[in-house]
Protein 1
Amino acid sequence: MKKLDKARELVPSLQIFQCDLSKSPERKRFTNWIEENYPQCNILINNAAVVHVLNFFSAPDILSKGELEIQTNYLAPVELTKLFFPLLNHKEKQSKIIFITTGLVYVPNVIYPFYCSAKAALHSFVQILRSHIKDYPIDICEVLMPPVDTPFHQGNPPKRAITPRKAVDEMLNKLEKGEKEIKVGITKLLYLISRISPSFAFKIVNTM
């Protein structure tokens, strides 16, 4: 809650709601709050994520950590998309659902076994969702982020990490242009290399 309060200090008009998106009842509680207080809502940004740096065979409590990541990184955005659908499904709203994923959906980093797997599954889900929702007035967008210098990296961001400002500016610019699959920063290059030489791309990601 401290982080939310700090955010509201920076932006006094910000409305905050604390919940644990790794739990299905909390997702429903959040959706109900939005429906009751903001029925005009026309956008859902699925951005929440959690990550553990670990080795699958040696890390303690590996399966419970994996379950937390799968719930937060994959099932939460899937369920929220379903829960928000009745609220967003109105022609006059020009609704949009945005999924924040990562360039690692193309090439996984071995220190993030569950994070990469969940985001790759979400990337696949987004592509399927576009087909299922084509007859509804809702745009589906995916933003594939490169390394960004945020607390996600616990004070040790990769050398190629970009600033949050740069990441957001590029994302907003491409959203305004109507792009549906937005590859931010170095993600564009990673995608191309992964198509030409998957093994080389894997080596690059895992030696950075």
Note: Residues 20-205 form a domain with the Rossmann fold fold (CATH 3.40.50.720).
Protein 2
Amino acid sequence: MRALFIGDIVGESGRKVVTQNLTMIRDRYNLDFVIANAENSASGFGITEKILHGLIDSGVDVITSGNHIWDQKDTLIYIDRETRLLRPANYPEGTPGKGSFLYKAPNGEHIMVINIMGRVFMNPLDDPFRIIDDIIDNNSLNNVADVIFVDFHAEATSEKLAMGYYLDGRVSMVAGTHTHIPTSDARILSNGTGYISDVGMSGDYDSILGFDKQNPLEKFISGIPSGRFIPAKGEGTLSGILFETKSSGLVSNISPIKFGGIFDDELPDF
């Protein structure tokens, strides 16, 4: 399977760079599946049902999230009926929505997408290591799922690395999200699992984490909250990671991608 994971989509700039370029990117790389984290897609806070369907219509197959999943209160209403939107699996039992789901890709293969959230410097949730064990025990690679992808939404790189090594050889890909900063450590671990600490955001990088610079700067300088952060509106960059799996479900090829915006990188060979 050839797949793309797109990092945190922030505001209108992030949505535009995804929706305007994804068809071209899917065709260029002959992609079988596209996953995107879109928990900041609605003005930087949460995701609406309209935005969800707009991203799906543009070519995204599954949308993951994180600590901002509940910022739009309507999400509580529609998430139970929308299996293409995941929330972190380690929310307490009884929380609306699903934290993982087995999808059938157009090429006929089954991909298990797991959304999980870290606990270091984050809101305390259930143990992500125990929860992901439970999911994988029931949906193991090459038994139920042909591919297993994990979006680990976490702050600390140490916790992300620990999850990567913990799952090495048991899942196809572990990709970190949340910090909105792309890391340069994309690699295939020793037992065949693809890994990157953070894929970065999709949005305007002439910003502070995708938001207009003024309010965050004032907060850091004065220590006083200066109002709601507003997404930056400049040209967006699409950040993510391409990965390809073997018949074993483990990764044979991996390549970060930054396209458009201030980076204006060429699309990588893959």
Note: The first helix runs from residue 11 to 19.
